[in-house]
Write a structure and sequence with these properties.
- Helices cover about 65% and strands about 10% of the residues.
- The protein is extended, with a radius of gyration of 21 Å.
- This is Prevent-host-death family protein.
């Protein structure tokens, strides 16, 4: 069943109908004209989503505790993220570790932006590596004076 979408202006006008829709679908997408869209969900549904993320993070972390599990995760990685084929073996391992760490942060600290950032950054890296001309352009020495190491933002 697809998640329904309702205009923000309908929330107050039709609050009983919106509540019934949330009860039926567990989550509703609220479109806003003057701001970021919202999602309204039942508390139970939100707890279930958190538990799902927690189980997935713990499962991957447990797999990474053994060499056999690491091989299984690395073998499954292209099915989930097809673009990892452009990463080296070391880069794939680093991506998996960052993915697990960010997933744990999402579960333990309710910080979800990090997980999104890790995926976006590694996908961007893969996109660069997939284009030899772009890779060459971005990895060539810079002309002129070296101003030293760039600090993290």
């Amino acid at each position: 069943m697809a998640m329904p979408t309702v205009p923000f202006s309908d929330l107050s006008k039709h609050s009983k109908q919106v509540a019934e829709t949330i009860d039926r679908f567990h989550r509703v997408h609220v479109k806003r004209r003057d701001g970021e869209d919202l999602f309204i969900s039942t508390a139970r549904h939100d707890r279930q989503r958190e538990e799902t993320a927690d189980v997935a993070a713990r499962m991957i972390a447990a797999l990474l505790a053994s060499d056999e599990g690491v091989r299984a995760v690395l073998h499954a990685l292209p099915a989930v993220f097809p673009w990892v084929r452009h990463l080296s073996a070391d880069e794939r391992r680093e991506f998996v570790q960052e993915l697990v760490d960010a997933t744990r942060d999402a579960v333990d600290l309710d910080v979800h932006a990090t997980l999104h950032r890790v995926i976006v950054e590694w996908r961007s890296t893969a996109r660069i590596l997939a284009d030899p001309a772009l890779t060459a352009q971005l990895t060539r020495p810079l002309p002129g004076e070296d101003y030293g190491e760039v600090t993290a933002p």
